[in-house]
Every structure is written in structure tokens, then in C-alpha cells.
């Protein structure tokens, strides 16, 4: 089914030529655009790049994230790099098993200081994130690298699109960011113009991503038409290939001296 976000805002050539020659396509686009403004709501739910110094100060560790520990007063754990196990714990010398899943690095620091206080006077511990493997965001649509990407807490829509490598038919004017939720009232979606950011340097739409965000890059109008034609021709292509295979096989056999006529 056609969607409003499948088409770019500025279809200059196509709008004057292709649509005028295809009334049914014009009607389809008009129907698709009806009510499209209802989806771009709650923009305030997204933090902009220029509005915050840190976007994920409350990052909570989960398996299989790793943490790096600095504790000058406690050589037993100083310099330790630990991966959070599936049970949510790490194993440290002197203090043993410590449950850290669901805690921020600052909370883990305070917990380790409390445990070390049994052995050292006023120990100071600093914990920072190592590899963040537990949280992902997703990029789909007209990009070369579809799929899941590691969420670092400093990911913006522009860095995500750059990493995913848009295809030649990607419509970067209408990139959709979907923040999913089991609660429909908390699900939000906005559309951003990445072309405007790249060409003019306007970063007012370069929002921070959150864990689980989905980015969808639609095709351009001409790209969309090409994809639809490809879908229509797909059942024909395998049949066409079977016609050429015997000829290719005969040529290959002849080159190896096949004795059969």
C-alpha cells in the first residue's frame, strides 16, 4: 500500500511529467498523503543534538556490556575490565560476586566503594562503560547496511544514516524515526530532512536516538516505481533464467569435450 512517506516533498520533474501522464498514480499519491500530518507528533519527545551535552547519562548496564574499573586505593580491582554475565553479575577479587545489571556506572561505583569500605578507608572507585552490546537501534529501507547497530548513547540520526550508507534511490528528505512502545500512547514518530542538514548545515533536526529506535529511509518516487516494477517482474525472471541455463550448460560441456552430441 502506498504511504505518504514513500514520496519526497519536492518531486519536481516527476510531478510535472510522470503524474500528469498517469492519473491513477496521481490519485494514489493524493490518497496516501491524506492525514500524513497525524504521524509526526510529540517532537518534544526527541532530544536534539544542540540541546544536550550528554544524551545517555542514565545508561543502565545489561549483559553482555562490559565495564572498566579504576580504583587507585584498591589494587585488587584497579584496571579490571569485566563483561556482565547473563546472571547480571561480575566477579571481582577481594569482594567476590557483584550484581550490576540494571545499574548506571555511577551507581556501580558507589556500590563498589561501599563493598571496599570493609577493607579500605574511604576508597574511591570510578566505573566507565566499555563495550555496549546490550542495546541496539535499527536502520531499514534504502540503505546498504540494514539491521541492528550498537547503541552508544551518543548516536544521532545523521551519524546513523551515514553509517548505514544510503542507496542512490534513498529519499533523505523524508527519513522517519520511530520510537516504538508496547503502550500505543507512548509510541512517537517524526520525519526529518537529512538532505537539508547535509546541504545547508541546519542541525535543528539532528535528534539523539534512544535504545530501540527504528530509522526508516524510504525510496524516492522514481525509485519506488522501479521497485514496484521489479516486484511485478520477479515471477518472470526465474523462468527467463531457466531458458538460458541449458544453452550455458551446452557451452560449458563443449569446452570440456563432452562426448554426447
Main attributes of the structure:
alpha+beta, 261 residues, Outer membrane lipoprotein wza fold like, wza like fold, 17% strand, three-stranded antiparallel beta sheet, five-stranded mixed beta sheet, elongated
Topology:
Blueprint: H1 12-16, H2 18-21, H3 23-33, E1 66-70, E2 81-83, E3 89-92, E4 96-99, H4 105-116, E5 126-129, E6 136-141, E7 147-150, H5 157-164, E8 175-179, E9 188-192, H6 194-200, E10 214-217, H7 221-233, H8 236-255
Parallel strand pairs: 6-10
Antiparallel strand pairs: 1-2, 1-5, 3-4, 6-7, 8-9, 8-10
Mean pLDDT: 78
In N-to-C order, the SSE pattern is HHHEEEEHEEEHEEHEHH
Supply the CATH superfamily name of the domain at 39-54 and 135-226. Answer: Outer membrane lipoprotein wza domain like
Quote the CATH topology of the domain at 39-54 and 135-226.
Outer membrane lipoprotein wza fold like
Q: How far is the N terminus from the C terminus?
A: 53 Å
Q: In percent, how helical is the residue content? A: 25-40%
Find the structural class using helix and strand composition: alpha+beta
- Biggest sheet strand line-up: 7-6-10-8-9
Number of strands: 10
Uncertain spans, ≥5 residues at pLDDT below 50? 1-21, 27-41, 242-261
Please tell me what the overall shape is: elongated
CATH class of the domain at 39-54 and 135-226: Alpha Beta
Amino acid at each position: 500500500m502506498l504511504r505518504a512517506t514513500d514520496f519526497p516533498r519536492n518531486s519536481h520533474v516527476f510531478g510535472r511529467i510522470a503524474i500528469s501522464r498517469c492519473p491513477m498514480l496521481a490519485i494514489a499519491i493524493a490518497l496516501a498523503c491524506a492525514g500524513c500530518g497525524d504521524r509526526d507528533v510529540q517532537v518534544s519527545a526527541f532530544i536534539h543534538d544542540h540541546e544536550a551535552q550528554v544524551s545517555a547519562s542514565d545508561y543502565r548496564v545489561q549483559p553482555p556490556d562490559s565495564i572498566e574499573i579504576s580504583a587507585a586505593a584498591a589494587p585488587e580491582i584497579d584496571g579490571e575490565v569485566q563483561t556482565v554475565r547473563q546472571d547480571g553479575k561480575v566477579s571481582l577479587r577481594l569482594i567476590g560476586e557483584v550484581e550490576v545489571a540494571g545499574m548506571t556506572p555511577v551507581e556501580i561505583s558507589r556500590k563498589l566503594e561501599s563493598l571496599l569500605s570493609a577493607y579500605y578507608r574511604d576508597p574511591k572507585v570510578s566505573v566507565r562503560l566499555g563495550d555496549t552490546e546490550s542495546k541496539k537501534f535499527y536502520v531499514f529501507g534504502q540503505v546498504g547496511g540494514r539491521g541492528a547497530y550498537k547503541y552508544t548513547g551518543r548516536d544521532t540520526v545523521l551519524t546513523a544514516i551515514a553509517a548505514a550508507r544510503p542507496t542512490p534511490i534513498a529519499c533523505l528528505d523524508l527519513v522517519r524515526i520511530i520510537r516504538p512502545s508496547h503502550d500505543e500512547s507512548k509510541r512517537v514518530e517524526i520525519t526529518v530532512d537529512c538532505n537539508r542538514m547535509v546541504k545547508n548545515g541546519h542541525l535543528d533536526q539532528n535528534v539523539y536516538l534512544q535504545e530501540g529506535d527504528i530509522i526508516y529511509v524510504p525510496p524516492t518516487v522514481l525509485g519506488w516505481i522501479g521497485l514496484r516494477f521489479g516486484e511485478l517482474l520477479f515471477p518472470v525472471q526465474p523462468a527467463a533464467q531457466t531458458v538460458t541455463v541449458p544453452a550455458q550448460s551446452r557451452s560449458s560441456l563443449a569446452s570440456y569435450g563432452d562426448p554426447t552430441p
